[in-house]
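can u pls check wat happens w/ pyridoxal-5'-phosphate
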Amino acid sequence: MPTRTDRGEADLASLPLREDLRGRTPYGAPQSGRAGVGAAVQLNVNENPYPPSPELVADLVAAVAVAAGTLNRYPDREALDLRADLAAYLSARTGVALDVPRLWAANGSNEVLQQVCQAFGGPGRVALGFEPSYSMHPLLAAGTNTGWVSERRAEDFTLSAADAVTAVERHRPAVTFLTTPNNPTGTVTGLDVVDAVCEATPGVVVVDEAYAEFAAAPSAVTLLERHPRLLVSRTMSKAFALAGARVGYLAASPAVVDALRLVRLPYHLSALTQAAARVALAHTEELLGTVEAVKAERDRMVREIRAGGLTVVPTEANFLLFGRFERPAEIWQALLDRGVLVRDVSAGPGLAGWLRVNAGTPAETSLFLSALREVTA
Ligand SMILES: *Cc1c(COP(=O)(O)O)cnc(C)c1O
C-alpha cells in the first residue's frame, strides 16, 4: 500500500478546524527517501529526470548571489521582469503577442490556481472538473470554500465539446477546469472544446497546460484574444525541469490578472525565486532540449508496455496511464520492491485498475520496463 504520513487524526479532532475540512486527506504523493519510501528510480510525480547543467547551476548561483545582496528589501511585488520574460517565452512558443499585463506568476501553478479559486470561486459558487483529472483541482476548491462538481470523461478519457457544454449548462460553474494534456490520463482536449465551453459558461475557464511543451496540440493561448474569461495556466515544474524552484504562471486578459492581484499575498514571489526563474528562462533552449529525449522514452515505454500485453492510454504528456490490473496496489508495491516508484492513481474517480508512470532517463526507463516485465510475468 502507498505509505501515508501520519495524519494525527486524534489531534485534529480536538482543534476548532473548519467543519468542511474535517476528515479530509492532504495531497500526498509518496516522496522517495521520506515517509519510509525508498526508491532508486522515481517516476511518480511527472518530474523531468534531467538536473540543471553545471553551466546553468553556475548562472543560477551568480544570480541568486546578486539577489541575496538586497534581501533586506522586499522583492518586486509585481514581478515585472519575470512576467516580461514569461510573456516573451510564451509569445515565441505560441505566436500570440503577449505582454506583462496579460501574464501572472506565482509559487507553482498550484498557487496560481488557488488564487483563481480565491478570486472567482468562494462560498456559494462551484468549480467544475472533468474526471479523472488533476487531483489538486478539487483540493484547491475545497481550501477556498468553493463547491466542487464533476462530470466523467468518456471511457477512453476524452472529452467532447457537446458533453462539456452540457455539463456547464447543468452546473453553471464559476470556474471550469480543462486540463490538456490531462493528468493522469495523458489525453488531449481539442481547442474546439475550450472554445465551446468559453461560449457556454458565464464563469471563467482555466485551461491547465502543465504539460503543453510535451504535446503536439496547439495551445489555448491562441484563443485568448476571443475570450476575455479564458485563463491558461502553465508551469516551470515539468518540461522546464524546475520543480524545486516553484514557479507557475498564467496568461489571461489584463482584467483577470488584476483580479488575481486582489487576492495574492503581498510579495508572494521571493526575490530568489524571481532571479532563479529568469535565469532558467534565459536557458530555455537548453532546458527544453530535454523534451525530445523525454518524449522518446515515453514512446518507448508505450511500445514496450503494449508489447507486454497491457493497455496504455494514448498520451501527449511526459507520463502514461497503464493497466488494467486486478490489484494495482500489489503491482505498485512489487515495482517499489524492485526500486521503482510509480503512482497508484487507482483509487481516483474512473481509474480503477490503472497505474501512472512518467518517462525517465533511458536508464531509468529501462529499469522500470524490466521491473514491470518481472512483476507481470
Ligand atoms: C504538475 C501539475 C501542475 C504543476 O504544479 P506546480 O505547482 O506548478 O508544480 C499543475 N497542473 C497539473 C495538471 C499538473 O499535473
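The chain has two domains: 30-50+290-376, 54-283.
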